[in-house]
User: What shape does this take?
Amino acid sequence: MNAAPTERSAAARAVSALVHQPYIWAIVALALLLIINLTKNPAYLAVSVNPATGDLSGNVIDILRASAPVMMIAVGMTLVIATRGIDLSVGSVMAVSGAVSMEFMQSSGSNDLGSAVLAGALALGISALLGTVNGILVSVVGLQPFITTLVMMLAGRGLAKVITAGQNTSATNDAFRWIANGTILGFPVVFIIAAAIVAIIAVLVRRTALGLMIEAIGINPKAARMAGIRPIGILISVYIVSAVLAGVAGIFATASVMTVEVAKTGMTAEMDAILAVVIGGTSLAGGKFSLTGSVIGALLIATLDKTIVYLSIPSSATPAFKAVVIVIVCLLQSQRVRAFFSQRRSSTTRTTKGAVSA
Amino acid sequence: MARSARFRSIAGIALAGAMALGITACSSGDSGDAGGGDGEGLVTVGFVAVGPEGGWRTANEQNIQDAFSTENGFTLKYAPATNGDQNSQITAFTSFIDEGVDAILLSATEATGWEDVLKRAQEAEIPVVLLDRGIEPDDTSLYTSRIAPDNVGISTSAAEWANEQFPDGAKYVVLEGPPGLSVVNDRNKGWDASIADNFTKVESQSANWSTEEAKSVFETILKANNNDIQLVFAQNDEMGLGAALAVEEAGLKPGTDVKIITIDGTKAALEALAAGRLSFVAEYNPLFGEDAVSVVNKALAGDTVESSIVVASTTFDSPEAAQTALPDRKF
Assistant: This one.
């Protein structure tokens, strides 16, 4: 007798908490896209077992698979942006990572698990190195993140071209291919890996003081240092994490076709990452960030990409659609519009929360 | 002092490195020693190129670079576009005019918008030879000659093969390159004119010449049409290979359930044809460096040059044909 009302109020509280999340409009946009697709084909969301391959098959599965690389770079970008930085080099790091792994597997020529693991480790190692350079230039040398990562964006793609001698390199390795195309119990491996990585990072930043420190640096680096936070170490690690995640995204992208296209792999991926972060409600001014929001943003971008093709709209129009979605979602997220929609709980609670965490 | 000087020089090297990857420092190694003094007899040629794009482009640009070698009496300045951006090509083109090169080779990333710079080259009396890609509007007075395989003819042969394979028609999908390219327009033109009336074009979608994009795009198209597609006309090899991957992932057999036509004829495509994953590969012959050399020599000697030179290409329609061609495939 007592249990029912408290449960209901807990559910109601959960719903109201969700409505007040900054990424609620990204969820609404995502739902809208799915509804649009459903009107074209009522079976859009259906997931069936493909009799030929035994895997789960359906548009939703395709979206999950396509969202994995975006999710990786978006999560890394979220942490960087939270420190009031930006990482424009993620797309190029993807290309470098793909180039390194493909070139390694092609020259090793063996189709075993060992060479796949080595290729992946090498790719992630070099990505981490590029991230370290970014981090040192930003934190120790004090260059602006925008300039630092812009240079790395140019240099990285050049590096990818040097590694493969300007060629689009292909390789054959079943284990490596499995990362992007394989399934566990019919479910795409690539999404499972991505989700696991996101979960680990979420635990790392939310269950320890790390997230708080990142936010503190983003809000006021000087005050953070005076409060005993060492910005250099945290900044460097944040750029390394972003680059390593971009490396993972590069492995996902190239493993899916087992080819690195030096001029195309990861092209404009940095834009997708920034968009996913912004859609997810993280402010570009640094400070507060939302990993969940960025994951939803990545899902939204993947869904948008797929929807355009599904509706037979020329895919060259995709950037325009992205622009429209972003403008609308950002408008809806803006304080003024939000205040207009929900006058009961204005931004006061949020600001006090921010002040406490700072 | 010493440290700041060293820092500055390191920064300088880093900056120069970054610039070298952009378009400004476009010349490759050989142009550096040309300034050194072995100059006199060599003809300086600027090559406004597309840069890394795929196997075909690599073979083509390598072939051009080999043909315009120092032994043949040339200094070639190679300027690839930055990520397919036309602006970077125009910048390179203009700087070639300003440097006063003897001739310019141009593979345009985009067809339109070349009138101004081509007029400038004309005023400077620098002959311009278009390689592979044409310009629009196709004003032959603006350039000396265009050397290219015949895109319309190649896609016509692809359509004729499709007509033979599917006498009762079929549902097909076209995977195109980026919209606006003359290559894309020509390949569409030849195909659309020759494909039989009983064929249904389900979809025509750009996948930007990319395997990764083609795979993603075609997987969605298959879902949207319940796998009811019999034929794919991929306008380059890379996209065709991407489509084949998507077909395999859908649990179908490329070559049997979905026939795939590609254009270009790179080694990777012929290997896939030999393995039965592609069905028809139309070559778009990239090896015309020798033709380019003779055109440039003629133009510089003041001889008349034909405004359009067609490079002969062949087609491969069976695994056997691919197997015979593979051993001495150069690209």
